[in-house]
Amino acid sequence: MKEVRSFIKTASLAELEKAQQLIGDAISKYTQQQKAKQEVLELLKEKGLTLEDLQDAASDKRTKVKPKYRMELNGETIEWTGRGRRPKAFEGVELEKFLA
């Protein structure tokens, strides 16, 4: 607010009128956005949805890749898609033997 007061003291009439117009536009845009948000929330409520319902669908766009290789080691199943770094369990082995 200090900056605003300082601007008001030093600004010309034209600058003050321009600032008034910009502030009026910002207030109008803000109220329109708030009204739109309220309308969307009311529509969600009417349809029985929550914001979380919408967020879950768009949260992770990555596709799951099926494992290409699988092996049993010490009673544990180790899988690898063939992407990224090779797991230690698959180092030094012939991968064709462990195709899933």
**What's the order of the H and E elements?**
HHHEE
Instruction: Compute the number of helices.
Output: 3
Largest sheet: 2 strands, antiparallel
Integer-rounded radius of gyration: 30 Å
Shape, principal axes of CA atoms: elongated
- Report the structural category: mainly alpha
Mean pLDDT: 89
Widest sheet, order of strands: 1-2
Give the number of DSSP strands: 2
Distance between the termini: 66 Å
Report the sheet-strand fraction: 5-15%
Helicity, in percent? 40-55%
Low-confidence stretches: none
Kindly describe this structure.
It is a single chain. With about 100 residues, the protein is mainly alpha-helical. The chain has helices spanning about 1-10, 15-45, 50-60, and strands spanning about 70-75, 75-80. A hairpin with a 2-residue loop joins strand 1 and strand 2 (about 75-80). The protein is elongated, with a radius of gyration of 30 Å. It starts with a helix and ends in a 20-residue tail after the last strand. InterPro entries: H-NS_C_dom (IPR027444), H-NS_C_dom_sf (IPR037150). This is H-NS histone family protein.
Short description:
With 100 residues, the protein is mainly α.
